[in-house]
Each structure stands twice: as C-alpha cells, then as structure tokens.
Specification:
Length: about 210
C-alpha cells in the first residue's frame, strides 16, 4: 500500500510540475477545493524556490569551471552533443582530451560529485558511458556553448568522430561481426543525431543559396 501511495504522490507531483512549467496551473485550480488549492500554492512556491536555488548553484559552479578549468569545460561542452550518453572514448575524442591524464579523471570525478554527470557500463558492450543527470544542467551548458567560439570546433569534432566510427565498425561482415555492430547499435541514437543535424544544415544552406 505504501509503495502505491509513493507512486501516486510522485505521479501527482510530476503532473503538477508539468502544469507549472506550461503555465496551466492557474486554469486547473478553478476545479479544485480550497484546501487543495492551498497545497498547490505551497507546492508551486517550493518548486520555484528550488528551481531558482538550483540555477544559482549551476551558475556558480559553471563560472568557476569556465575560469579555472578549460579541460573540464570542454568535457562538459562535448557531452551536450550526446543524444543520451557517450562512451568514454567518444567523449574524450570529441573534447580532444587525453585518457592518460590524471586531470581528466579528476574532472570526471568532480562532475560526478557535483551530481552533474553520471557514468555506468553499457549492458551491450561493457564500455563505460557518461551522461548528464539533470536536463536543467544540460540545458544550461548547451546555452553557454551556443555563445562560445568553441561550438564550431566541437561540432566538427562531433561529426568527424562519428564518421570515423561508422567507417571503423561499418565495413564487411567478416569475423565476429556482431561485436562490431554492437558498438553501432548502442550508439544508434547518436549516429541519427549527427545525420539529422547534417541533413538539416545542408537543407538550410541549400535554401539560402
């Protein structure tokens, strides 16, 4: 019974958050008893308070990284290109970072401590993969990257890395072909993201000629 209540509470909170974000909460209040409206008002107030505090925390940490740790900044920027996650090799290639440096591991550990980045081994290939924990953090970093001169270089690196990976794992089906295609399969959403961006960019350039 307790488990079902927790699930119901989480479902309720998610629905309310969706309404808050889409500015539809006030419309919904007109159908509720006064007691429930008071609960919603408090929930909305707590939500925005927590949201503001989280944004401030992200801003403070990001500005410190941007000023003091350019290698860590490139890791963060590179990870924003992931549709869901990158394996460690791809992340480092895009960021042009060396896996051999203790600084790189320190940076990844630091981002994990900040609860910005999470890592885990792929069930398909066993390789370690990295992703953002919170979409708010990812969105903030994406916005920062859009204003940074590094965006063009990193985007080219992102495309080049996936072209190279496709060439490496997409040849004839000799030997243990399934091992090669496992690497393609686990990264399929990233391949599609690269393809979709290139196709859209090509169409936009073509339409402006």
């Amino acid at each position: 019974v307790k488990i079902h209540k927790v699930k119901d509470d989480l479902r309720f909170e998610k629905n309310i958050i969706d309404l808050i974000i889409n500015s539809k909460l006030d419309d919904s209040k007109s159908f509720l008893p006064e007691e429930d409206i008071k609960k919603l008002d408090k929930f909305e107030s707590d939500f925005w308070k927590g949201y503001y505090e989280k944004c401030q925390e992200i801003t403070n940490i990001f500005e410190k990284i941007k000023t003091e740790n350019p290698e860590c900044l490139r890791l963060l920027y590179a990870l924003t290109f992931a549709h869901d996650s990158f394996d460690e090799e791809m992340l480092l290639d895009i960021a042009n970072a060396s896996a051999q440096t203790s600084q790189m591991q320190d940076n990844l550990n630091m981002l994990h401590r900040f609860s910005w980045v999470i890592s885990g081994n792929s069930e398909l290939t066993g390789f370690k993969r990295y992703s953002f924990i919170c979409s708010l953090t990812r969105g903030y970093i994406q916005q920062a990257l859009s204003k940074d001169d590094a965006q063009k270089t990193l985007r080219k690196s992102w495309i080049d890395c996936y072209v190279k990976k496709a060439q490496e794992y997409g040849n004839d089906d000799y030997g243990n072909w399934h091992e090669k295609f496992d690497r393609i399969d686990e990264d399929w959403s990233n391949f599609k993201a690269v393809f979709d961006w290139c196709r859209k960019n090509w169409r936009d350039r073509k339409s402006t000629r």
